[in-house]
Write a structure and sequence with these properties.
Number of helices: 9
Number of strands: 8
Shape: elongated
Largest sheet: 6 strands, mixed
Distance between the termini: 40 Å
Mean pLDDT: 79
Strand order of the largest sheet: 2-1-3-8-6-7
Strand content: 15-25%
């Protein structure tokens, strides 16, 4: 019975330590910088060109936008370090991208991508034609309808911002549990070590990983919604902030809040021209930068975001 009470006390004390990392003695959030390092990832690269348009590729556009975003973030947030996963047309697997982000101990992961939609198939009746078919072992001629078929570019357009899907929560918890030590004081770390927290089923570690995972989800969702709201303000069509159930492994593999921004549809000729234009790329970067500034302000002032662990040094 005493062991159960002690375990409960340790869980409670560690939870309080974790959640109060950025609150003062009064319980109110402290005004402290919690966004110190942003990881900017240009999607695809090298032999992995991603989606293709009439004259450009996703990897090329993503890199151009990411490099502009780096400069804009540096100017807008001089107290924040910007780390790029790539600066040239090279290929990194999603595993390498996650490793770069986690090793840099980022506080936010922003992935730049370009969307694509399959061409629309068209069919038109043009008359009749005669074909030869086999019936009861004999060749006979038959008159059938004849159609002309062709494709046209898909009219889909607009932006989407993704966060990891809730069905990937277990993977997120596993990643979060690996970085817990960076959010705890030395005494808490010793308690965890004494309780053999390398055991994945340890209740203390599980509880803290749950807290961190929930915080990552809330912050990712907050930023994704803000980005789409800001795109709407400049006249872009917003296809909303969404949870991605598959295809974006890196979002649940990074130990930080993470969003993936689909900046437009390269499959739409009008959008492809916009995505390749200087004006279009600058507008995209201005929207993302403005959104991150609002996100940073909300973290430091705890506006609409639950208090939690702080950033890593």
């Amino acid at each position: 019975m005493m062991r159960v009470k002690y375990a409960a006390f340790v869980l409670l004390s560690l939870g309080i330590t974790f959640l109060s990392a950025f609150t003062g003695p009064s319980g109110k959030p402290q005004q402290k910088q919690v966004l110190r390092r942003i990881i900017v990832d240009a999607g695809h690269g090298g032999e992995d060109v991603g989606a293709r348009g009439r004259y450009s590729t996703e990897s090329q556009i993503s890199l151009e936008v990411a490099l502009k975003l780096e400069k804009m973030l540096q100017a807008a947030l001089p107290d924040v370090e910007i780390v790029m996963t790539r600066r040239t047309d090279i290929f990194h697997s999603v595993i390498q991208k996650a490793e770069i982000a986690n090793q840099a101990k980022g506080d936010l992961f922003v992935c730049i991508h370009v969307n694509s939609a399959a061409p629309s198939r068209r069919r038109e009746f043009v008359g009749y034609k005669t074909v030869t078919v086999r019936r009861k072992g004999k060749s006979v001629k038959q008159r059938v309808k004849d159609y002309k078929t062709w494709t046209t570019p898909n009219p889909a357009k607009g932006t989407e911002t993704y966060i990891y899907g809730v069905d990937k929560t277990d993977e997120r918890k596993a990643v979060a549990s690996e970085g817990l030590d960076e959010y705890l004081d030395s005494v808490s770390i010793k308690i965890l070590q004494a309780r053999k927290t390398s055991d994945a089923n340890d209740p203390t570690k599980t509880m803290l990983a749950n807290i961190l995972t929930q915080q990552y989800f809330q912050r990712s969702a907050k930023l994704a919604l803000t980005i789409e709201e800001e795109f709407q303000k400049v006249g872009r069509i917003s296809r909303q902030a969404q949870q991605r159930k598959k295809g974006i492994w890196v979002l649940q593999a990074v130990n930080m809040p993470a969003v993936l921004v689909e900046t437009g549809f390269i499959s739409n000729p009008e959008e492809e021209d916009y995505l390749n234009s200087e004006q279009g790329q600058i507008e995209i970067c201005e929207v993302i930068t403005r959104s991150i500034r609002l996100y940073k302000y909300s973290l430091e002032n705890q506006v609409g975001i639950s208090s939690g662990a702080g950033s890593r040094k």
